Amino acid sequence: MSLTKQEISSTGRLTGRVVKIAGGCLLAGMTLLTACTDRSDEAAQFFLKGNLQLQKREYREAIRYYTEALEKKPDFADAYNNRGLAKFRNDDAEGALADYTRAIDTDPDFGPAYLNRAEARLETGDAGGSLVDLQRIEKQYADSTFYQLRLGDTHVRLDEPARAQIAYDRALRLDPANVEALTNRGALFFSQKAYEPARQDIQKALQLNPKQDAALNNQSLLLAQAGNYAEALTYVDRALSLRPTQPYYLNNKAYLLLRLNRPAEALPLVEQSIKLADGNAWAHRTLGIYYLNQKEPRRAVAAFRRAEQLDPSVDALYYYIGVAELANGQREAACAAWARGVQAGDPQAKAEQAAQCGK
């Protein structure tokens, strides 16, 4: 299954500097002054219209209005920032990143743009760049629960779990009802196999917001870990009802369907998941399990090896590689895979190694 944290874009900050229209015009005479004021006033009006559409989640309309504002006032840093947020929520992370950078280039002290760019950099795989942005505004935002949340997310991506937990703990001290911090800290606990604190965080998140899709998905992970696959399926279905094309949720449902012996339903879901997010090692593991169950060991090995290339730390991966290699007639490769699993602390791999390899 795939571990899912809260969607990064959900706490992008809509800038509070509503009108910043004085700068950027050359006041060389009364005629130019009037023209400059008119353009600035029009820019402010388009900006406010964009904010309204953004709040209504009409992202394309918001982008259109912000673009109009920027045509009237090309140095309108707030409009770049908010257009970036609209693009980000419209699944255009690269476009958002460009706009946040333009906002910062226009106003190097614009804190919200750094916070938003840190989110976009995380989304595009640049965790190091995200940390640089967050460090740039640390003094300004240290007491912000949203800042600490994103700092935690960044440390997770940098494989620094201790620092991530410190940041999540701070976020929750600042706001105990920060649902995203609860969701993401719960996901961190789950990844460390600390299932009881993970359960507590996820349950509290769902009490605060029963429609928190990431928390619903993670509750399904907790139930699946305990072997309650049918109940887990109901939670991931609720998550998918809110975000039908979220690739991790699709993969998790496919995995549960395999556990419930419903492979025909599982295959299209995991294939769709991989199409949407080919870099998710857990989905390739699920595909390997499907092929293994269908007595197609060569295809299973290929899927598992792809998962290994992407993330060798995926749970029980070397156990499955060994099973598939053995089914494919490659005992030596199977024993080597189980040996890797033993090194990783996988009890299933250890049992297979003892049974099949004489160790």
Automatic annotation (TrEMBL):
PANTHER family, alphabetically?
Answer: TETRATRICOPEPTIDE REPEAT PROTEIN 6, UDP-N-ACETYLGLUCOSAMINE--PEPTIDE N-ACETYLGLUCOSAMINYLTRANSFERASE SPINDLY-RELATED
Q: This protein's superkingdom?
A: Bacteria
Q: Show the InterPro entries listed in the entry.
A: TPR-like_helical_dom_sf, TPR_rpt, Ycf3
Tell me the ranges holding the TPR repeats. Answer: 43-76, 77-110, 145-178, 179-212, 213-246, 281-314
Give the species this sequence originates from.
Answer: Spirosoma rhododendri
Pfam families to which the protein is assigned, alphabetical = TPR_16
Q: What is this protein called?
A: Tetratricopeptide repeat protein
Q: Give UniProt keywords alphabetically.
A: Repeat, TPR repeat
Recorded hits in Gene3D superfamilies, A to Z, give:
Tetratricopeptide repeat domain (1.25.40.10)
Question: SMART domains, from UniProt?
Answer: TPR (SM00028)
